[in-house]
């Protein structure tokens, strides 16, 4: 039985690239038949990375079957995984997020969670010397995943180890980290083809904060103007998205990668109150700039107060 | 703040030794202040191991405080941990059991779960070359944990890696694995001082099987006669233990380490039905011998049918 390797819904570069890396390792090094798959259409940056490294786009699956072998990467959150995930035969989990509880396995399996910026960094460590056998595309995917998750080392989630692994991969491949990251971020910034609702759900996670269900959306971009020019229709769309997804409010943070700041859209008094309580800012108008804020995991979620 | 390192309630050798090993590593290698603690009195084998390797008995704690730093080893099951465990600051989890779901962490932390026989084997891998700095007692605790959890390699949970690590440690220490294991199993078999209820709870885990709550108790011994001679009072005590612990039935498997078989006590028709359905045996009388059955994890739990 082929093991399916996948990351979270709404795949970004790490959730697209890491399954490809790990499926290569299982197939070529461990002798375990494995296939990388996606739980949805990859975002524009991930699509660029596939094309750039000449990697075939993994199949998008609609769901999982009871008893099928799966490896979960880049998440341990059942809400970000297909329904019925606990009925599959989970054989490994590799992740860099907090343990949320909810996944269950039938027996003891390999679980590796590390407080690093990127799943691919953990895979680099787990694969070790066998990485020498990897084709260029696998190493390239690894490099791209880490540049993406660290926002080229600007994100406060970045560790010295993520940086060192990136530098080693770039040297091995003979590529410029800055050129690759710039091209990736440009691809991510090209959001013209997406609807407002699609943008709000593109990189979004739900959190219950003091009883209020918040869908916390982040758009990382080198061209914030493209998004902020659409702020009126984005704010109008928030009402429908919140309703459809059972949330009380959508928060949209537009992260300006190059200027290292986030702009939060403020459509109503609830968000104004949340912004002022959480980030100690004063809001006047329908946006507020939060200098230095780059990471949902490290800076937004821990700060949120309702 | 000192990090407390502990295993599960009703500490056996692995849940007593592994916290000592990891606290040594944190203190002496990682420069993190850490203290091994216990969630109860160690069993007789673990007490022997402490004395044999001249290790001080860790303090027994009554509970955990909100926000205190803890490392959890040899379990990921909240039911085997102090109340309020999710309110502590869990900084790492090292375990070799199935993921049961229920533990939550505030941020991404180090989690290492491996399908190996023993937590100490995983620690051997994580510590790597730094183990050369360890005093004799730490290496001795490691060796004892693995001999205990593998029943000197008789348990089907044993992997080639557990065996290889044991052999390397024994060679390094210049001790006989067989002599050490024999002394440990003798210590574990000395159960004369325990009440029937204490014996039933000594190495016991609750499982819900098809709606029936079973407390599945295992006693590993080289002297099964000492326990089976008490079978009438043990069976009488099962009724009270089940009632007090909210279980429907206690199942007691007396594992004969040397003869590699288990004897299940059969106090009533329910257990007779379970035994026959689960192990394909025919029960006549108040015990049944199950040849080759040594492991709750690998052989008993997966087989249980009510």
In spatial order, strands of the major sheet of chain A run 3-2-1-4-5-6
The count of domains of chain A is 2
Question: For this entry, what is the oligomeric state of its chains?
Answer: homodimer
Q: Can you give the helix content of chain A as a percent range?
A: 25-40%
SS strand fraction of chain A? 15-25%
Poorly predicted runs of chain A: none
CATH architecture of the largest domain in chain A: Alpha-Beta Complex
> What's the helix count of chain A?
11
Q: Find the CATH topology of the largest domain in chain A.
A: inorganic pyrophosphatase (n-terminal core)
Catalytic activity (chains A, B): diphosphate + H2O = 2 phosphate + H(+)
Protein name (chains A, B): inorganic diphosphatase
EC number (chains A, B): 3.6.1.1
Keywords (chains A, B): Hydrolase, Manganese, Metal-binding
Would you write up a description of this structure?
2 copies of one chain form a homodimer. The first copy, chain A, contains 11 helices and 11 strands. In chain A, α1 packs antiparallel against α4, α4 (136-149) crosses α6 (177-189) and α7 packs across α9 (231-244). With 306 residues, the first copy, chain A, is of the alpha/beta class. Chain A folds into 2 domains: 3-187, inorganic pyrophosphatase (n-terminal core) (Alpha-Beta Complex), CATH 3.90.1640; 196-303, Diaminopimelate Epimerase, Chain A, domain 1. In chain A, the strands form 2 sheets. The first copy, chain A, has a 6-stranded parallel sheet. The relative contact order of chain A is 0.10. The first copy, chain A, starts with a strand and ends in a 6-residue tail after the last helix. Chain A has helices at 13-29, 44-52, 119-127, 136-149, 160-173, 177-189, 196-202, 224-228, 231-244, 269-279, 296-300; strands at 3-6, 34-38, 59-60, 69-73, 89-95, 110-113, 204-209, 212-221, 249-256, 261-265, 287-291. Chain A is globular. In chain A, β9 (249-256) and β10 (261-265) form a beta hairpin. The mean pLDDT of chain A is 96. The A-B interface holds A 90, 93, 95-116, 297, 302 and B 90, 93, 95-116, 297, 302. Chains A, B: Pfam families: DHH, DHHA2. Chains A, B: Its cofactor is Mn(2+). Chains A, B: Residues 181-304 form the DHHA2 domain. Chains A, B: It catalyses: diphosphate + H2O = 2 phosphate + H(+). Chains A, B: InterPro entries: DDH_dom, DHH_sf, DHHA2, DHHA2_dom_sf.
């Amino acid at each position: 039985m082929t093991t399916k390797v996948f990351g979270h819904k709404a795949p970004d570069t790490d959730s697209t690239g890491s399954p490809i890396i790990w499926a290569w390792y299982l197939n070529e090094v461990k002798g375990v038949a494995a296939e990388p798959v996606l739980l949805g259409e990859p975002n524009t940056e991930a699509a660029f990375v596939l094309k750039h490294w000449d990697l075939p786009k993994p199949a998008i699956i609609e769901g999982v079957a009871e008893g099928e072998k799966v490896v979960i990467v880049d998440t341990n959150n059942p809400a970000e995984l297909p329904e019925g995930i606990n009925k599959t035969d989970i054989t490994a989990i590799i992740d860099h997020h907090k343990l949320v509880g909810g996944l269950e396995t039938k027996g003891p399996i390999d679980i590796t969670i590390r407080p690093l910026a990127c799943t691919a960094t953990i895979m680099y460590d787990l694969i070790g010397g066998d990485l020498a056998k990897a084709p260029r595309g696998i190493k390239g995917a690894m490099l791209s995943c880490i540049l993406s998750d660290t926002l080229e080392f600007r994100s406060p989630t970045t560790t010295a180890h993520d940086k060192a692994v990136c530098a080693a991969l770039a040297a091995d491949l003979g590529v410029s980290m800055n050129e690759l990251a710039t091209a990736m971020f440009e691809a991510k910034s090209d959001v013209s083809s997406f609807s407002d609702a699609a943008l709000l759900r593109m990189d979004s996670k739900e959190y219950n904060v003091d009883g209020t269900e918040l869908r916390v959306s982040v758009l990382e971009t080198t061209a914030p103007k493209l998004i902020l020019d659409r702020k009126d229709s984005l704010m109008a769309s928030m009402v429908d998205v919140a309703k459809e997804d059972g949330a009380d409010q959508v928060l949209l943070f537009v992260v300006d990668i190059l200027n290292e700041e986030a702009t939060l859209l403020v459509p109503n008094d609830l968000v104004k109150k949340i912004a002022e309580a959480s980030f100690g800012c004063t809001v006047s108008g329908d946006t507020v700039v939060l200098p230095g804020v780059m990471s949902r995991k490290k800076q937004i979620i821990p700060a949120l107060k309702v």
